[in-house]
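Sanity check

After download, print the first record. It should look like this:
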Amino acid sequence: MEPANAQYFSLGKGPQLEFYDIDYAYLADRTKRTGPLDSLHYISIAPETFLSLGGEFREQAWAQNNEAYALRTPIRNAYDLQRELFDVYLHIDRHLAIFAQVGRYDSFGKINPSTTDRSYGRLQQGFVELKEPPGPAQVTARVGRQEIALGSARFVWVNDSSNIRTTHDGVRVHGDFQNRASLDLIYTRPVASQLDAFSDFDTHAGLFGAVYASEAVSNILHVDEYYFYRRDFGAQYMQLTGNEERDTLGGRLWGAYGSLKFDGDFAYQFGEFDNKRISAFGTSTRVLYTFDRTTWLPGLQMQTSYFSGSNGPNAKTIGTFSAPMPRPTLLNYIGLDTLENLIEAYPALVLNPANNFALRLGPEVLWRASVNDAVYISRTTPLTATLSASDKASYIGTNLIATAQWRPVSYVTVFGEFLHELAGPAITLAGGSPVDAGVIQVDFNF
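Expected C-alpha cells:
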C-alpha cells in the first residue's frame, strides 16, 4: 500500500485516479490474487479476453461560513455530496479494449446546487481503446468520452473535488517511448453535465485541444512542453462576459534530487476575448524537502504562484490568466480561490505519524496581481464587489489550513481539510468577511 500524503506532492501523473490506468492482466496468475477485490478485477472470458469490474463510492460533508467571503449568497451552507460510479473494462485482446463508466451524483441539503453537484445518471466515460507498438513506442488511442489530466494537472484537471468530474467527448492519442518520453495529442469538446439522467450527449462547453510532450533529461530532471487551445463561450473577467479563444504555450520542470522534490509550471497565453487581445502569464512551483531519517518523516514544503490580472475592464488587453481546465485545489482542497489574478506564498509542514496517515499544516498568503482586476473565486468567478474605486488593496488574506489523510486499507481513503481565512483589505473594503470552511471525505474504490 502506498503511503498517505496530505495534499499529495505529485511527480508525473501523481496518484492514479482512473480505473483503466491499472493493468490487472497479472491477475491471470491466480497465485497473485491476494486481495478481496481481485476476483472482480480479472474475469477470464477467452485466452486473451478478460473483463475488469470496479467502481467508486464517495461521500463528502461540507460546511462553509461566509461562503465567497459573504459577497454572494448563500452566506452559510452545510451539505453532503455523494458519488457512485461503476466501471466496466473489457479487454478483447492485447490491442483492443472498451471502457464504460456510469454514475449517479446526489446533493443533500445544499443551497443552490450547481450542475457539477447533481445528476440522476450519466455516462461519465465511454471509449474504445486501441493499442499498437510501432517500433520502440507504445501508442494508445482512445475515442469517445473520457477524463483528461495532463502533467502536474495544474492547468488541465478532472476537477475531482467536485461531485461530477470534468469529462470530454473526443480523441486522445498517447505515445510512450520506452518510459523516457511521451507525447499526447488531444482534440475534444468538454461536456456540460445535466441534471436529468443521460441527457448530456449533445451538451458541450466549447472546444479543447492539446499537444503535450514530456522527456526525462536525466534521473533528476524531467522537462515537459505543451500547447493548449481553448474556445469558451460566456467567459467572465471583471465585469465583462464574452466568448474567447485562448492559446497557452508552456513548460514544466519536475523531478527529485535525494530528499528534495520539485515541480514547476510556467505558461504564456494569447488569443482574443470579445474583440480584446489576450496577453497573460501564469506560473506555480512547489518544492518539498523530507527528512527521511527522522521520526514522522517531517517535510518542509513551499508553494509559490503568480497568475496575472487585467488593468481594468476598459483596457484593450485582457491580462487575466485563465487555465483551460484549472485546478483550484492546487491552492487548497476547499477551492476558495482560483488561478486568476493571484499571487500566492504557501509554506507548510508535512508530517507522517504512520505510513498510512499524513498531516499538512501551514498558512497560505494571497494577494491580487492587479488591483484593477477582481478577486476570483472557484470556479473562475469574479467578485465584482472587489472592483470598486474604493477597493485598490492587493492583500486578499491569509488562509490557515490543516489537512489530513488516512488510508486504513488500500481501497479506502479518509480525507479532511479545515480552512480559516484572515480576510485582508481587498475583501473587507468590498464589504466581505473572513471565511471558515471544512470538508470530510470518505472514498471507497473497488
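If your output differs, re-run the checksum step. Summary of this record's structure: Residues 19-445 form a domain with the Porin fold (CATH 2.40.160.100).
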